[in-house]
């Protein structure tokens, strides 16, 4: 290989690298624009069909199903997103009766499947979500508290 060919190969590699950097930086700039525009998501919790419950619980503890909607750029959430749902008998949430922890899902609902709630008690709930950029929304409280159904007799 002569010096002329080596110089051409180095030039091609150099310009290829510059094109790669340009494309990569434009993609990162677009992602940053989305993050900047939507750093706090307008997350609203549905008040229609707020909490689905059976007429009475036979399982030993209440297992309500919570529904919500996300008013945000769906591109941010892609296929899955993470949420945390808290339930408390006091609307200050200083010591939640139930905390889901971080849950990864494609759903806009969550059914309680473990102990933590009592029957016939008034509860408040709230939720926050995280997008694919690991940015959390603010807590979105539900507008309407709910009372768990009684236990079956």
What percentage of residues falls in helices of 4 or more residues?
Answer: 25-40%
> Number of helical segments?
2
Distance between the termini: 90 Å
CATH-scheme architecture of the largest domain: Sandwich
What is the fold-level CATH name, i.e. the topology of the largest domain? Immunoglobulin-like
**Anisotropy-based shape:** rod-shaped
Series of secondary-structure elements, N-terminal to C-terminal? HEEEEHEEEEEEE
Number of domains: 2
Instruction: Work out the strand percent.
Output: 25-35%
Q: How many individual β-strands?
A: 11
* Top-tier CATH class of the largest domain: Mainly Beta
Could you list the spans in which at least 5 consecutive residues all have pLDDT below 50?
A: 34-49
Summarize the biggest pleated sheet: 6 strands, antiparallel
Rounded to an integer, what's the Rg over CA atoms? 24 Å
What would you give as the CATH superfamily of the largest domain?
Immunoglobulins
InterPro entries: Ig-like_fold (IPR013783)
Protein name: Fibronectin type-III domain-containing protein
Main attributes?
alpha+beta, Immunoglobulin-like, 11 strands, Fibronectin type-III domain-containing protein
Note down, in words, how this protein is organized.
- Helix content is 25%, strand content 26%.
- The strands form three sheets. Strands 5, 6, 7, 9, 10 and 11 form a six-stranded antiparallel sheet that branches. The chain has a three-stranded antiparallel sheet with strand order 2-3-8, with no helix packed on it.
- The protein starts with a helix and ends in a 6-residue tail after the last strand.
- It has helices at 3-37, 74-77; strands at residues 42-44, 51-52, 65-67, 69-71, 81-88, 98-99, 103-105, 109-111, 122-130, 140-141, 146-147.
- By secondary structure, it is α+β, with helices and mostly antiparallel strands.
- The chain folds into two domains: 1-37; 40-147, Immunoglobulin-like (Sandwich).
- The radius of gyration is 24 Å and the shape is rod-shaped.
- Residues 34-49 have low confidence and may be disordered.
- It comes from Candidatus Falkowbacteria bacterium RIFOXYD2_FULL_34_120.
- This is Fibronectin type-III domain-containing protein.
């Amino acid at each position: 290989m002569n010096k002329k060919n080596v110089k051409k190969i180095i030039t091609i590699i150099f310009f290829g690298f510059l094109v790669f950097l340009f494309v990569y930086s434009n993609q990162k700039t677009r992602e940053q624009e989305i993050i900047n525009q939507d750093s706090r998501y307008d997350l609203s919790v549905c008040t229609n069909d707020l909490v689905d419950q059976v007429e009475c619980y036979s399982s030993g503890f209440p297992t309500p199903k919570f529904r919500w909607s996300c008013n945000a750029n769906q591109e941010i959430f892609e296929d899955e997103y993470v949420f945390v749902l808290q339930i408390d008998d006091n609307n200050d949430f200083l010591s939640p009766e139930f905390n889901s922890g971080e849950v990864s899902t494609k759903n806009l609902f969550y059914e309680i499947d473990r102990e933590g709630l009592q029957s016939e008690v008034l509860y408040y709930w709230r939720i926050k979500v995280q997008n694919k950029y690991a940015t959390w929304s603010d807590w979105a409280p539900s507008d309407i508290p709910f009372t768990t159904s009684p236990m079956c007799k």
